[in-house]
Automatic annotation (TrEMBL):
NCBIfam families: gatA (TIGR00132). The lineage of its organism: Bacteria, Pseudomonadati, Pseudomonadota, Betaproteobacteria, Burkholderiales. It comes from Ideonella paludis. Residues 1-449 form the Amidase domain. It is an enzyme of class 6 (ligase). The keyword Disulfide bond does not apply. Heterotrimer of A, B and C subunits. This is Glutamyl-tRNA(Gln) amidotransferase subunit A.
Length: 456
């Protein structure tokens, strides 16, 4: 903990930490030492980590990357935070992210961008960019992230680390500041599938305080990751595993370096005994408009609570209540958040609801059905995480559409609520990391982790 606190301070230029609490971290670490000395240590006792600043914490500030919550402090811990604390982990602080997790590059944080440690001119991906950069720069062995439409998988890919977004409902959303409630899901980001398995076991499980939490017994994902497949051999641990490659995930426009790295990783899976089969997810392209209707619709509702009354920022001067709301929200929210609130309010408004929101909901169900058809032909689905390697900070010139389009390979699994992960596949142009995406059927996290572990 002491060593990593020093590293975090020495790498402040990366912008990954929004809050560092050395005193609290050291005292928790000492308690972990005592637990270990008393023979009461678990696999995560004393493991340093930090949380994406979208999880509320009682002992540290929580900003969600927004000016709106600049001096906000929650009276309680998010369930994910509380569970990792109970497992003995040591939290060093809070990690930078896109404002309310809206973004793909961590360029939308009110507290400045995060720099990719592989090339500090480039983005680390987003919205869990602080988490990805901190793990990639070895400031932490692990961090929490959240994924609504790719925010664990894409920054893991851009930063050369491993991350898993479990099935919707596996991790409690209690205390995770809501962006799009039907999509938001927490997950671990770490150096390996094995570390992710240990973290996910601790942070997941039913929570009666989240109505969308899956009612399942606690899972030991580490044991699931290690358990051998039927018919597996020492040299072919993935023997018999059918890996589906959706043709839509390999379009002609896919960057050659990304394609090369992904194909290389797929060849490795074959060497490990897996067979590759071609499958189809015909509505892959439609996942972009569907997501960018549903996510903003839910965001416009979720963010209505930031009105200057209940918590967070309040405008200093105003005429009446309506003026206070307007000024508070105009000052507190950044451009991307305002754009989403406007899109969301529009698609939900009378006269447009049927044309946009309802259509999107119908397509969302068809996207989920497409996956189920695929899973009759294969056990896991594989493909790229993103169409390119990490881009340069500012390169998109503030054009939000470019970022939206780059979400094409992560949005389908999010809309279907399926587990997805990113594992390092290799390197693309400029020596930048490229991730392989693995998507499993509902609650098949163990199989995803097993596959990723074999590859690592
Ligand atoms: N890039 C997507 C968006 O901007 C996904 C973000 C996320 O998963 N939180 O909405």
């Amino acid at each position: 903990t002491q060593h990593l606190l020093g590293r975090a301070q020495a790498h402040a230029h990366l912008g990954s930490f929004l809050h560092l609490d050395p005193e609290a971290a050291l005292s928790t670490a000492r308690a972990a030492d005592a637990a270990r000395a008393a023979g009461q240590a678990g696999p995560l006792t004393g493991v340093p980590l930090a949380h994406k600043d979208i999880f509320v914490t009682a002992d540290m500030p929580t900003t969600a990357g927004s000016k709106m919550l600049a001096h906000y402090r929650s009276p309680f811990d998010a369930t994910v935070v509380a569970r990792l604390k109970a497992a003995g982990t040591v939290s060093l602080g809070k990690l930078n992210c896109d404002e309310y997790a809206m973004g793909s590059a961590n360029e939308n944080s009110a507290y400045g961008p995060v720099h990719n440690p592989w090339d500090t001119q480039r983005v680390p991906g987003g919205s869990s960019g602080g988490s990805a950069a901190a793990v990639a720069a070895r400031l932490l062995p692990a961090a929490t992230g959240t994924d609504t439409g790719g925010s664990i998988r894409q920054p893991a890919s851009f930063s050369g680390i491993t991350g898993i977004k479990p099935t919707y409902g596996v991790c409690s959303r209690y205390g995770m500041i809501a962006f799009a409630s039907s999509l938001d899901q927490a997950g671990p980001m770490a150096r390996s599938a094995e570390d992710c398995a240990l973290l996910l076991s601790a942070m997941s499980g039913f929570d009666e305080r989240d109505a969308t939490s899956a009612e399942r017994p606690a899972q030991n994902f580490h044991a699931q990751m290690l358990s051998a497949r039927e018919g597996a051999t020492a040299s072919q641990p993935l023997k018999g595993l059918r890996v589906g490659l959706p043709q839509e995930f390999f379009p002609a426009a896919l960057a050659a370096d990304v394609n090369g790295a992904v194909r290389h990783a797929l060849a490795e899976l074959e060497k490990l005994g897996a067979t590759l089969v071609e499958v189809s997810l015909p509505r892959t392209e439609l996942s972009i408009p569907v997501y960018y209707i549903i996510a903003p619709a839910e965001a416009s509702s979720n963010l209505s609570r930031f009105d200057g009354v209940k918590f967070g920022h309040r405008a200093g001067q105003f005429d009446d209540l309506l003026d206070m709301y307007k000024k508070t929200r105009a000052e507190g929210f950044g451009a991307e958040v305002k754009r989403r609130i406007m899109i969301g309010t529009y698609v939900l408004s009378h006269g447009y609801y049927d044309a946009y929101y309802l259509q999107a909901q119908k397509l969302r169900r068809m996207i989920a059905e497409d996956f189920q058809r695929c899973f009759t032909q294969c056990d896991v689905i594989a493909g790229p995480v993103a169409p390119t390697v990490a881009w340069k900070i500012g390169e998109q010139g503030g054009d939000p559409l470019q970022a939206y389009l780059a979400d094409i390979f992560t949005l389908p699994a999010s809309l279907a609520g399926l587990p997805g992960m990113s594992v390092p596949a290799g390197f693309g142009a400029g020596g930048l990391p490229v991730g392989l995406q693995l998507i499993g059927n509902y609650f098949a996290e163990g199989q995803l982790l097993h596959t990723a572990h074999a590859l690592q």
